[in-house]
Amino acid sequence: QASIVVLVSGNGSNLQTILDQCEQGSINGKVTAVFSNKSTAYGLERAQQAGVDAISLAQGDFADRAAFDAELMTQIDQYQPDLIVLAGYMRILSDNFVQHYAGKMLNIHPSLLPKYPGLDTHQRAMDNGDKEHGASVHFVTPELDAGPVILQAKVPVFTEDDIEELSSRVHTQEHMIYPMVIQWFCAGRLAMTNGKAVLDGEELAESGH
Ligand code: GAR
Fold first, then answer.
1. Which of 100, 109, 133, 175 is catalytic?
2. ipTM of this complex
């Protein structure tokens, strides 16, 4: 069974679907630890409720990003992870950290990448009058939100939407696609090869890049 380490900063609804699907056996893996850079993240509580180690590191205890990430890496590696899952982890990771987990770190981002890397994606989609929006699961590479896309889910944007409605529509899709991709990885069907996402031996087309 794959050892999965999840990083969160907040609510952890994606974490919850991953915990549930590991429990049910639809993901052939086990969440061995959840780390947060915020001690108040509700995701930590979800981990504890599932009997999973929940650890928070405070940025203020470290001189700089490199020191923080080095400690995070040391602690994560004690769980001998096969896969690192970023699930609403809102802190930029240093190149060193990303390279250490190259090909085995996934992120979910609330936009149809390459559109809207970074923050405030729902607001930006609405401000631009986009008719569709969504979420993307991708391998993490040093450039922010620019790693190869594995799977996307699209949702419509309605003119009467507010940000809560739109973000909850996206969240619902995230809860479908993230566990699916994680299971692909755990089943050995998914890899990053030469900077491309490969599923069952076939290169996945880069949408829009
Ligand atoms: C999700 O919508 C995820 O796509 C986003 O944070 C939310 C976390 O929700 N991630 C990012 O913006 C990463 N830059 P959750 O805590 O309920 O899973």
1. 109
2. 0.99
